[in-house]
Amino acid sequence: GENVEQHPSTLSVQEGDSAVIKCTYSDSASNYFPWYKQELGKRPQLIIDIRSNVGEKKDQRIAVTLNKTAKHFSLHITETQPEDSAVYFCAATFTGGGNKLTFGTGTQLKVEL
Amino acid sequence: DVKVTQSSRYLVKRTGEKVFLECVQDMDHENMFWYRQDPGLGLRLIYFSYDVKMKEKGDIPEGYSVSREKKERFSLILESASTNQTSMYLCASSGTGHSYEQYFGPGTRLTVT
């Protein structure tokens, strides 16, 4: 069935360090992989996404990589700042699901001063 | 700028009550979704709708129903609220075709006592 696994569930880094969050998916035909950020008490918001015809995408300090063979994708945040502290969710579309997204269970990132 | 609103931020109901959660979007989006968010479980899809009067079950539809009489409005109904439905409920909308990005509402924190 449709499944997205996300690791780790919590991640603590020092300010300025890099953070990496990994997700695996079950459907080899999945073609869209977004990452959402949810700050405390706020709604999830899209921060970056990647489609299956691209291996990597960058936007300033964040990047996403996709390995279709291994069916996993990762979020990379460089030079972390306190405002990066939030819960991050990965997601994927699945065959026959139309615009439906299946989300991972989330990663609580804490950037310590 | 997409705007998704939900009728209440906080709601307290008694066991057995019928509960209505309303969601409205102003971007003429075809797709609308209801999720519940619980710690460690991520965002789980309850129901979604691709068009007016159209609905499809998500991953956890038991105990819930939905209504979409107008394109901009998607309602989640708890026919007989139970304590295990205490949760954060998030509504989202997205456009058609390859517009997979989902825009979320602020959420409704429902407590059933």
Question: Overview of this structure, please?
Answer:
The complex is a heterodimer of chains A (113) and B (113). With 113 residues, chain A is mainly β. Helices cover 0% and strands 54% of the residues of chain A. In chain A, strands 2, 4, 5, 9, 10 and 11 form a six-stranded mixed β-sheet that branches. In chain A, strand 4 and strand 5 form a beta hairpin. Chain A is globular and about 45 Å long. The mean pLDDT of chain A is 94. Chain B is an all-beta fold and 113 residues long. Chain B is 0% helix and 53% strand. Chain B is built from no helices and eleven strands. In chain B, the strands form two sheets. In chain B, strands 2, 4, 5, 6, 9, 10 and 11 form a seven-stranded mixed β-sheet that branches. In chain B, strands 1-3-8-7 form a four-stranded antiparallel β-sheet, with no helix packed on it. Chains A and B meet through strand 5 and strand 10 of A and strand 4 and strand 5 of B.
Throw out a few tags for this protein.
heterodimer, A: 113 residues, mainly beta, 5-stranded antiparallel beta sheet, B: 113 residues, 7-stranded mixed beta sheet, 4-stranded antiparallel beta sheet, 11 strands, globular
List the helices and strands and how they pair.
The complex is a heterodimer of chains A (113) and B (113).
Chain A: E1 4-7, E2 10-14, E3 19-25, E4 32-38, E5 45-51, E6 56-59, E7 62-67, E8 72-77, E9 86-92, E10 102-103, E11 107-112
Parallel strand pairs in A: 2-11
Antiparallel strand pairs in A: 1-3, 3-8, 4-5, 4-9, 6-7, 7-8, 9-10, 9-11
Chain B: E1 4-6, E2 10-13, E3 19-25, E4 31-38, E5 42-49, E6 56-57, E7 64-70, E8 73-78, E9 87-94, E10 103-104, E11 108-112
Parallel strand pairs in B: 2-11
Antiparallel strand pairs in B: 1-3, 3-8, 4-5, 4-9, 5-6, 7-8, 9-10, 9-11
